[in-house]
Task: structure prediction
Amino acid sequence: MTTAQNTPLLEIRDLSVRFGGLLALSEFSLAVEHGEIYALVGPNGAGKTTVLNCISGFVRPVAGSITFAGTSLLPLGRDRRIRLGIGRTFQQLQLFASMTVLENLLVAQHSAMRSGLFEGILPFGRAPREDHKARTRARDTLILLGLEEYADTRVSVLPHGIQKLVGVARALVLRPRLVLLDEPAAGITHQDVEAMAQNLRTWRKELGTTLLLIEHNMSLVQAVADRVCVLDYGRKLAEGEARTVLSDPAVLEAYLGREALEEPEVVRSAVHEATSISEEQEARREDSTC
Result:
């Protein structure tokens, strides 16, 4: 007998999206398993963010289906999708810069609270209990991400790499089953990318969270992704294990262009970029067991 755990958590079938005369996605399909870290990669304009926007409800496809945990998402609004257990980060940080880190995580939980304005002014009842639960969940999330020391710090004074982690913490605080990460490594240092890779593994291990990420940093993809899907011009170009897919000549051509592929040094540099972090982390693990 088929069980929920034996079926994909997220399944997209034959998804097509048009923006005017532009076909942004063409019959695109994927299946993300429970507890998987799945990466969507491809050149700029390939359709990666459009996929996330369809899942989270910001874009409606002209054809195809999206199923999450056995429920069709297309009839549902964005709030309903969040309540089903889908979290999201964006390329541009959507944080309240004048608020503290803790306050940002409390605001992120507002949609899940059931108490109304009148209940909120009472010193008893549901509202105080919900507030206590929200603060506990927020602090637990900050501890998990190693951000507890920044709880009372205004977001505006934090380094960009820490702000990126705060954005992810906002997505995780409601304990979603699936988190959509839009370029989590964009604009951060190599050291921060290593920390991000470690955090992604920790979230999956500690929370059982399934992660679907868009990323241009191939070092991060190679370090964390169980599987990779390459998009080009709205179509699936390749799918499979990261190291194999990222060394595929068709994938390299989509990223670098046919002319660049004729330069061996360019190809060697691209493959090195795709494997550097994972090799460094593997070396550290071996050293720690000696």
